[in-house]
Amino acid sequence: MSDTLSAAQARRVALAAQGFTRRRPATAVAARHMHRAMERLGVLQIDSVNVFARSHYLPLFSRLGSYDPALLDRVFLARTTHYVEYLAHEATFVPVDDWALWRFRMDAFRSRWEADPESWMSRNARTLAWVKDELRGRGPLRPAQLRADAPRERGTWWDWDDVKLALEHLWRTGDVAISGRRGFERQYALEEQVIPDEARERVVPRDDAIRELVHRAARSTGVATESDLADYYRIRDRKAVRQAVDELVDSGDLQPVDVRGWERGGRPVPAWLHRDAVLPRQVDAVAILTPFDPVVWFRERALRAFALDYRIEIYVPAHKRRYGYYSLPVLVGDRIVARVDLKADRASSTLQVQSAWWEPQARPGDAEPIARELTLAATWQGLENVSVSGWGDAAEAVAAALRVARGGVQRHVHARESA
């Protein structure tokens, strides 16, 4: 591959690395399809917001199409799963066999807290010991179960927040692992009760772990800057990231590349291409993306690679929101062309498009594939109808395209404009 890429070529490389050049399964999505997608993603970020669908369900819908959400629960949340939760980006699912790769991060949490006599861990050793003893004797427990059985003593030692904080601290240091969820509530267990011995006892030196994670980030991004590589697994030690990049260049895993348009202060931003990266002639994907999809989760990269200036507005007061509470970017081909604010209204069995906005890379005709993807999204969520509000410069075109789509595959889905 050339050592110079256009911005459009870089987008196609990035999307191919994320699995968007693979056809969606022609048959029912099975566990093997999810495992294959995870090989490309590396991580699946978890989020509790459930306006349309919780975030960790969306990346697989974006890549695989409609699937049974219960399948994801079985694949990722069962006690015998291939995956476990850890802070690999934010809270994410990661392969359980990779547990040792995160030991350097667990050790960093422990060292920082234990070295500070005023840290929560240092001041609450008794709480931590009790929680570990309970898990050791009783096996996996939900926080509510621990709360119900906590000793009733005076003072604040057995405050509910302390029990919850103990579990979270122990999870960060690797003493405790997440053994599953009930609904969305985590179930905690000691590390040895969840992580297989081979994965738990494996030793990976810090430099080796960071180099492996940078290598995986490069494979998952296709083409990336140093900032992109560091952000993928939230590695804050930039000196270690630079060292890993240099070693991966020396080994032939990474190739320096110039991307036209990737500039800062009028100068090209150094970038690298993974050895397995491919440059497809075109990308035919159409997908609704979660804010926590690796394609867009790093704002700097989203702006540089896709001309998407993106920030979710959950915490913005309603009257100050520009795009909506939980707007989702929409990919058509190799361009992010729109954003739609979706809500699943279960009572009326309606997917509400609360706003729809065009992005700078939109082209005439983009409304039709967006409409088809919205009808598919409604069906995936078991909703019979689609409504479109009048908010946003793309709303009218999307509503019109949805009316046309009524006669297609999803004939029970209709567009209804509202003021």
Please outline what is shown here.
This protein has about 425 residues and is of the alpha+beta class. The chain has helices at about 5-15, 30-40, 60-65, 70-75, 105-115, 120-125, 125-140, 145-150, 160-175, 190-195, 195-200, 205-220, 225-230, 240-250, 300-305, 365-380, 395-405, and strands at about 5, 45, 85, 90-95, 175-180, 185-190, 225, 255-260, 265, 265-270, 270-275, 285-290, 325-330, 335-345, 350-360, 385-390, 415-419.
Walk me through the structure.
The protein has 17 helices and 17 strands. The radius of gyration is 23 Å and the shape is globular. Helix 12 (206-221) crosses helix 14 (238-250) and helix 16 (367-380) packs across helix 17 (395-405). Helix content is 40%, strand content 20%. A hairpin with a 4-residue loop joins strand 14 and strand 15 (350-358). It is α+β, with helices and mostly antiparallel strands and 419 residues long.
Percent range of helical residues: 25-40%
- Counting helices, strands and paired strands, the structural category is alpha+beta
What is the global morphology? globular
Strand order of the largest sheet: 12-13-14-15-16-17
- The poorly predicted ranges are 154-158, 408-419
Gyration radius from CA atoms, angstroms: 23 Å
Question: First CA to last CA: what distance?
Answer: 51 Å
Please, what is the average pLDDT?
91
Described by strand count, sense and barrel closure, the largest sheet is: 6 strands, mixed
For the secondary structure, the number of strands is 17
Strand percentage lies at: 15-25%
Total helices: the number is 17
